[in-house]
Amino acid sequence: MAEAHLAATYNKDGYNLFDNYTYVFLGDGCLMEGVASEAASTAGHLQLGKLIAIYDDNHISIDGDTNVAFTEDVEKRFEAYGWHVLRVNDGDSDLAAIAEAISAAQKVTDKPSIIKLRTTIGYGSKQQGTHGVHGAPLKKDDIANLKTKFGFNAEATFNIPDEVYQTYRDIADRGADAEKQWEALLAEYVQKFPEEGKELTRRINGDLPEGWENKLPVYKPGDGAQASRKYSEIVLQAIHASVPELVGGSADLTGSNLTRVKEAVDFQPPATGLGNYAGRYIRYGVREHAMGAIMNGLAAYGGIIPFGGTFLNFVSYAAGAVRLSALSHHQVIWVATHDSIGLGEDGPTHQPIETAIHLRALPNLNFWRPADGNETSAAYLHAIRARGTPSVLSLSRQNLPNLQNSTIENAIKGGYVIADAQGEDLNIVSTGSEVPIVLEAAGLLEKAGIKTRVISLPSWEVFDAQDEEYRLNVFRSGAPYLSVEAYSTTGWQKYSHEQFGLPAWGASGPYQKIYEKFGLTGPNIAEVGKKVVNFYKKKGGEVVSPLVHAI
After folding, report:
1. What number of other Cβ atoms are within 10 A of residue 508's Cβ?
2. Among positive and negative, which fits the CA dihedral 379, 385, 386, 390?
3. DSSP H helical segments within 396-510, as ranges?
4. DSSP assignment letter at 137
5. Backbone phi, then psi, for 53, in 5-degree steps?
6. 188 an active-site residue?
7. What is the pairing mode between strands 426-430 and 481-484?
8. What is the pLDDT of residue 263?
9. Hey, what's the torsion of the CAs at 364, 379, 491, 341, to 10 degrees?
10. What is the mean pLDDT of residues 465-472?
């Protein structure tokens, strides 16, 4: 997909800068995974003719012969997906047939290809064709016999023949020559097409357009309240023309995620009449896991910052891909809307009570839950700058007011004091749609003579990366901290002495009624705050910041 998009965007007559094949090696277990079906279906629809999969059909998985669990006709399956299907019956030794199949696959340009390569696992060993060779090392005598059979010195260990080294050196030299030729072609391209060349070079280098951040929307208190998913749409619309590397779509929830800008062109095969490969909007269909995996691939290819929209709860379907984004340092952006019980009538099946803490627990992933328009702009600013780190933007369905003291400059730090007080009796820390509720509670507490500070903490991970002085200035010692969020309270112990959230699943109904049911209202949070203040006054002693620890 990345090759097709960049080729359609930048290639010119005589300048095929992007013209590579993508090869996938997969086995029986890979094809059993659901993500394989999602991805293969997508590739077939998109007519990705430069995608070639080589299927190692050895009929073995960890449990034994695949006849115990996997007996489908893979060839018919992929034909139904719209793939070009080839077969090599002797994948163990018929190298000419393998080469011929790859060549034949390269000639089919309107379909992805899969080559069913019938092989024997552990070929040549005593355990060939059994699951015993799948994950366990061969015994010493078997290794010696195997080396003898294939003409190697049975006594030598960790020995690589010179001809193997030379073969790889030749391949490396060939690659280096090809790279020099490509760089020379790119240099000519930049001379002949300076505008496109400058942009392409910038994208290849991973640099962002100069001044793009000036396009981010800025709000002031009193500006009309909107859902943070709508603030997200406004951001995407505002920066679309300035950040051409931002390429994304939605998993069949475009109208709910609000991810498609007005001038968008769909990424589609030109033959369909639905768009073209230069299009920047991807229709992923109901395939969240494949969307996550594809975004990883787009980011790995380079020159593209991918984003994908779905409900926050459905990001769980793509958990494996999200984990690999973080592990592999892929810069992808999840636009995750309908982020809490605030989505209302869809009820507990759609309300992501536990999803946030799962994502917050992943190393090298930034989870953002903005409270208003400026915090949403800050989330995008950080996510688009965050090379090597994926981001999940957790966005509301319900309207959120624009708040006093909320600025992009404050929110970009991941956490800040949104309502200050001197000599405070209580601190309340919150995120997203609960911040306005907490601010209401703080006002009620002030009227009751309880001085209350409020901290907005849209991103734990980004806040944790700030210097210690700043963090301890925000979370200073002296008064207890109460956290409030419409999720499980797990994890909030790091930032608060007391936690208020959801004890179990959500409920179905108008979101205002659901918030009332669970006590997430200004008056009730004020009452909870009073209990916290009274408890710590009665307890006595110094109240130390929850961030102060020995280790």
Report:
1. 16
2. positive
3. 408-411, 435-447, 460-464, 468-474
4. P
5. -105, 135
6. no
7. parallel
8. 97
9. -130
10. 98
